[in-house]
User: Fold this.
Amino acid sequence: MSMQEIPLSTLLMFGLAASISLLTSLVNRLFTDPGKSKASRKEISEWNSQLRKAQKAGDKKTVEKLMKKQQYILQLQSKMSWQQLKVSLIFIIPLLIIWQFLGPFFYGKDLAYLPGVGAVIQLPLLGVISSLIWWYMLSSFFFGTMFSHVFGLIEVSN
Assistant:
């Protein structure tokens, strides 16, 4: 059985997605302070909520007061985005190299089979998506979410 055939190809991509998601989460954990990120997200969310409420009520005085804090909120959002971008920049070149190898290696091959759908997915705007892409995306989403919870990068909301 070849690495280009199901089930080995399926497991290979599953393992690759798990490895990349684990490394990304570890690096993200090292470069960010989850407690500070949570506090920033909460502060931004509360500011947005108060602003929407004041705008909806037509309370110009409160809107004006909140708009004085807008620059600070934009700086918080910018810092959070930069933290996420740093991790992306660390992984972009290695990922491009991996995909340059994997694309031709699995070109025209079925990587995984989704019951009820098959090996390829037909989407209205995107056309046919090969199993290489959808299986990696599905696996990556699964592991990314799992490791983000494990490392405290995101929390389950109640």
